[in-house]
Amino acid sequence: xxxxxxxxxxxxxxxxxxxxxxxxxxxxxxxxxxxxxxxxxxxxxxxxxxxxxxxxxxxxxxxxxxxxxxxxxxxxxxxxxxxxxxxxxxxxxxxxxxxxxxxxxxxxxxxxxxxxxxxxx
Length: 121
Fold this sequence. Notes:
- Strands 1-2-3-4 form a 4-stranded antiparallel beta sheet.
- By secondary structure, it is α+β, with helices and mostly antiparallel strands.
- 42% of the residues lie in helices and 33% in strands.
- β3 and β4 (110-120) form a beta hairpin.
- α1 runs antiparallel to α2 (36-49).
């Protein structure tokens, strides 16, 4: 039973951090006259009241380096071309959590694709 409570707590923390960032960015760009403190308080209250969360995040990396070694350049290019995303769904009312992590990297002629799926009921 302790594990179930800890997983729910972890799910709420992940959801809180994801949604907090999205809401803060949205509030900052909306041009409203709310103070930063009011935005954070409203966001936190919304997070505590949420029942379901669907989110997608991506990471784009751009490494720039003045490297003379031709053996290193393909690795830098692989990192720059890498695709990384996370899809997440949570239903707090049914205590369900799903997360799918996608990672794809290519260094000719090889391609590495990793898909990690986490599902918790």
